[in-house]
């Protein structure tokens, strides 16, 4: 196992995805099996696999990864089915393999994108157990950069 878990929380543009991808690349350089996916992409893939009766194969494939980089948790609202499927992936990996997540929402607001509050509690519980929680703040790098560029052009 690479690390227990990492949860990165912060506003858009604060470097969560950059850090997530960097950690994934570092793991690849160590010869680890890594997959980067947005939460929406993962849930869509799981729903399609379930519809094709291939869900157990897909869950097992995600279970064999050394590191799953799960980005943008909180940007797209999940329906009940999608949330349950996401929970299956988190549970499959629990204490066996690493997950790094990035979310624009604090844990207390995950109920706004996952409809079942008990499921939210279970997912947060599993993702935060032995986790390194990194808060990247609210100051967007992209917005700062744009403001600096505009200030220079107007000078």
Report on this structure:
The chain is an alpha/beta fold and 155 residues long. It has one domain: Rossmann fold, CATH 3.40.50. The longest helix is centred in the N-terminal third of the chain and has 14 residues. The chain is globular, with a radius of gyration of 17 Å. It has a five-stranded parallel β-sheet with strand order 2-3-4-1-5. The chain is built from six helices and five strands. The mean pLDDT is 89. Helices cover 49% and strands 20% of the residues. Helix 2 runs antiparallel to helix 3, helix 2 crosses helix 4 and helix 4 runs parallel beside helix 5.
How are the secondary structure elements laid out?
Elements: E1 5-10, H1 16-29, E2 34-38, H2 39-51, H3 55-63, E3 67-73, H4 80-93, E4 98-103, H5 117-128, E5 131-137, H6 141-154
Parallel strand pairs: 1-4, 1-5, 2-3, 3-4
Helix pairs in contact: 2-3, 2-4, 3-4, 4-5
Average pLDDT score? 89
For the biggest β-sheet, the strand order reads: 2-3-4-1-5
Tell me the fraction of residues in β-strands, as a range.
Answer: 15-25%
CATH architecture: 3-Layer(aba) Sandwich
Query: Radius of gyration over alpha carbons?
Result: 17 Å
Count of beta strands: 5
- How helix-rich are the residues, as a percent range? 40-55%
CATH topology: Rossmann fold
Secondary structural class? alpha/beta
CATH class: Alpha Beta
Spans with pLDDT under 50 lasting ≥5 residues?
none
Series of secondary-structure elements, N-terminal to C-terminal: EHEHHEHEHEH
Task: Give the CATH superfamily.
Answer: P-loop containing nucleotide triphosphate hydrolases
Distance between the termini: 52 Å
Number of domains: 1
Largest sheet: 5 strands, parallel
Q: How many distinct helices? A: 6
Cα shape:
globular
